[in-house]
Amino acid sequence: MTNDRRPDDMTRITTPEQAQAFIDQQITALRAQIGGKKVLLALSGGVDSSVVAALLIKAVGRQLVCVHVNHGLLRKGEPEQVIQVFRDQMNANLIYVDAVDRFLDKLAGVTDPEQKRKIIGGEFIEVFAEEARKLDGIEFLAQGTIWPDILESEKGIKAHHNAGGLPDDMKFELVEPVKILFKDEVRVVGKALGLPDSMVYRQPFPGPGLGVRCPGAITRDRLEAVRESDAILREEFAKNGLEGKVWQYFTVVPDFKSTGIKDSKRAFEWCVIIRAINTTDAMAATVENIPFPLMQHLVERITHEVPGVNRVLYDFTPKPTGTIEYE
Ligand code: XMP
Questions:
Q1: What does each C-alpha distance from 159 to 68, 145, 153, 178 come to in angstroms?
Q2: DSSP string over 224-236
Q3: What's the CA-to-centroid distance between 324 and ligand 1, angstroms?
Q4: Lowest-pLDDT range of 165-174, 192-201, 246-255, 258-267
Q5: Phi first, then psi: what are they for 65, rounded to 5°?
Q6: What percent of the chain has pLDDT over 90?
Q7: Listed residue (203, 179, 215) closest to 49, CA to CA
Q8: 248 lines ligand 1 (CB under 6 A)
Q9: Cα-to-centroid distance, 52 and ligand 1 (Å)
Q10: Contact criterion met (CB below 8 Å) for 177 and 143
């Protein structure tokens, strides 16, 4: 395939015209590589896999088979958005797998963060491989590998570049149409491909999803409290001009309860922790100065709208000493 490595003199893609030139060039290369065969893609709805999907849909249409695995740890509205954008608007060949019970049953009672990550990653590959085995004639596997992934795997930091850890008997040729791009370029290309801003400019979201924001053993009710409080935080940040300004923001619901009062009765319930940080490279981070009236409004909404929550706390800890996520 052409463009295996990023040419040293490649100009950074910053304009719609440059993005369009890249898209045209990739469509030609993808058609040459794939011909009339079928391609499989795990479509999470994150920026990289969404841009890869949109590029492949333009190049080979329904020869691309997208598999969206809902593992129950996605943010509110994400699975619905994947279906709406790709199946409804782009007419993608999309398989939606509801694996929520399967993941949450496996995770029940598991408290160790690394063990939780392993279960989520391992189960994801199993579900994806099961779907792949049901399909006939797939010869290619598309991946949203980007240039920093390749640089990091070359330096031995990440074992990224490995066909997603699929079982050895599943051999596919890789299709990696954004692998010479930096993240900001992927966003410019995504915008030019017509993907919604909420997908293109989304804040970073860890692979294990809300699972790392539900510290300790994940329970369905606490996970729901994370999802609902996160949705309120995102809605209020968008309304108040903080979306796109603050690098990453989310909520965490730790596994402890405290005494409170609701409807004049004692309420022994969870607390929601708000985290809102700024950084350039995620190696160090500072805490966003959220205006106090907005903070009060967030407390009001979260304690009234999220079942099982009677307190809201703000995490003032920079990185270091705190990491961005809690697990
Ligand atoms: P930490 O918590 O290490 O996070 O300060 C730094 C950045 O990485 C994201 N993060 C992850 N991303 N899988 C991912 O894909 C993970 O397991 C993971 N853990 C942390 C985190 O959201 C932050 O942007």
A1: 23, 12, 5, 18
A2: HHHHHHHHHHHHH
A3: 7
A4: 165-174
A5: -110, 115
A6: 93
A7: 179
A8: yes
A9: 22
A10: no
Domain total of the chain:
2
Which residue, judged by its Cα, is nearest atom 10 of ligand 1? Answer: 206
Specify whether the CB–CB gap between 175 and 39 falls below 8 A.
yes
Centre of ligand 1 from the C-alpha of residue 325, in Å: 6
Confidence of residue 156 (pLDDT cuts 50, 70, 90): confident
| pLDDT value of position 104 | 98
323 lines ligand 1 (CB under 6 A): yes
Q: Which two tokens stand for residue 100?
A: 């929520």
SS3 159: coil
What's the angle, vertex CA 319, arms to CA 326 and CA 182, rounded to 5? 90
Q: Where is 210: in which H helix or E strand?
A: none
Contacts of 19 (CB under 8 A, 6+ apart): 13, 185, 188, 189, 191, 192
Among residues 147, 170, 200, the one where a domain terminates is: 200
CB-ligand 1 contact for 208 (6 Å cutoff): yes
In this structure, the answer to whether residues 193 and 222 fall within a common structural domain is no
Mean pLDDT across the chain: 95
Name the one residue in this structure whose structure tokens are 């491989």: 129
- The answer, yes or no, to whether the previous bond of 320 is cis (omega within 30 of 0) is yes
Residue 325, in any domain of the structure:
no
For the CA of 325, the closest atom of ligand 1 is 2
- What residues make up the domain containing 21? 16-200
Indicate whether 222 belongs to any domain: yes
* Confidence band, pLDDT 50/70/90 cuts, at residue 154: confident
Give 248's strand partners. Answer: 277
